[in-house]
Please model this.
Amino acid sequence: MDATSPSAIALHNVARRFVTPDGNVLSALEDFDLAIAPGEFCAVVGPTGCGKSTTLGLIAGLAKPQAGRVTLFDAPVDGVDRRVGFVFQQDAVFPWRNVLGNVMAGPLFRGVPRDKAEAEARDWITRVGLKGFEDHHPHQLSGGMRKRVALAQTFINNPQVLLMDEPFSALDVQTRELMQEELLQLWAQAKSAVLFVTHDLDEAILLADRVAVLTTRPARVKSVHTIDLPRPRDVATLRYDERFIAIARKISDDLREEVLRARAGH
Amino acid sequence: MAETTLPVATTPEPKLETMVERMRRRARLVLALRLAVLVFLIGGWELGVRFGWIDPFFFGQPSGIVDKLIDWFSNGTSIGPLWKQIWVTIYEAGAGFLIGAVMGILCGIALGRNQLLSDVFSIYIKVANSIPRVVLGSIFIVALGLGAASKIALAVVMVFFVVFANAFQGVREADKNLIANARILGASDWQMTRAVVIPSALSWILASLHVSFGFALVGAIVGEFLGAREGMGLLIATAQGSFDSNGVFAAMIVIAVVALIAEWILTMIENRLLTWRPETTVHE
Model:
């Protein structure tokens, strides 16, 4: 985290404030500092409504901070950056396009010729295990399969920075475990820097190299914990490992404090 | 996943058979009751006239209406062949519908996508929308004459606002997540409009087209009422002028058939365009 090492994502003293309809200023982020190295998997946990998603919006260039600096590879963020991929919490695949059309959307938007885009898309559909479903529309797929479409749609653009906003929170426990496993495999090949927002501490520890705990609103980084569990990790069994439990206990004490404060304050 | 539809083979079949049988029986019952209602109403009307309870001079008579329709189809109407009148009205309503719908869709999308445009024009559209538009028919007749142009103009005005309001709303209701996703995937403004905004507004627009074809017919017929040389509206006005209530009802039935056929065509187009929607694919 020292100043000389390059960072894929960096936020320095960032503030993001909203004006509420009754004229008050609501601060979502204040003095927010976080840096993520290229290829690093960083998870962010915090009490609900603390501004986790806001942070992702700033990095993606969908919103601008009122103070501070947001940089990607040491260049300030100005609008949507082509190196960024984003997986949303809710379904964001296009319901009127079939699986193939959804996965090839990114390359087509970016001007890749149609036949090349289609070949790439078919490759990614196979990689996420959806071969044979190319012609299905999203409503014909299960929640887990739609998430796979979203992953393929994002990874096909080869993002160097991957932002994930509670992507698996709507899935059932078994599907979520499969998707976590799958994400780790995709990430191991893609080597992108990941910022993974979640409210599920177990998920954060299972996946990430580092876990940042946020305070209640206005959010800042309360503490950062390095997760030194060896990779590749087995999502299904790791949560029963003693080291996992020790880390989880430590971070969850940290997190509980904030959750209680959030409950008292709002 | 598709496996949810297939557990048929393992469950005992007789049960399923009776369920299908029961559904069929219910469908037959509904059909029979519908026919019964129709027979009751029409029969009551006819009998009422025969027994002298209803004055056919004012309210017509079903058998008289049928005779009138047969007469019109075989011998033509007082203002020319029936097919000609039907065609004129369909042409006016259809042309007005097409022009009004296209203008409504284009303006709705443009204003929906551009905040400044919509802030400037929304007030005028609200005002224009509150005017009873049928009144404009008189102006159109004066300005555009007794021919088809004035009826088409009235139909355009009737259709435009409905389609516009729906297209605008549809654009505004486009899912914010889908828009953010498309933007991050690399879509330009134009690609965004084509790939996200129009498809998501399409179900709103198509819904408005259903209603607005009816409005186009009203526009054409009212225009013909106000002044025309041919068309179903003129036919009704002529029948009214000679106190021929059977003629008015007969013309009404012809117009209803035209509207139903148009409705059916629009539903077919809608199902074609919206195959990705779960509801429409399950339906038919």
Summary: The radius of gyration of chain A is 19 Å. Residues 44 and 228 of chain A are 16 Å apart (CA to CA). The mean pLDDT of chain A is 89.
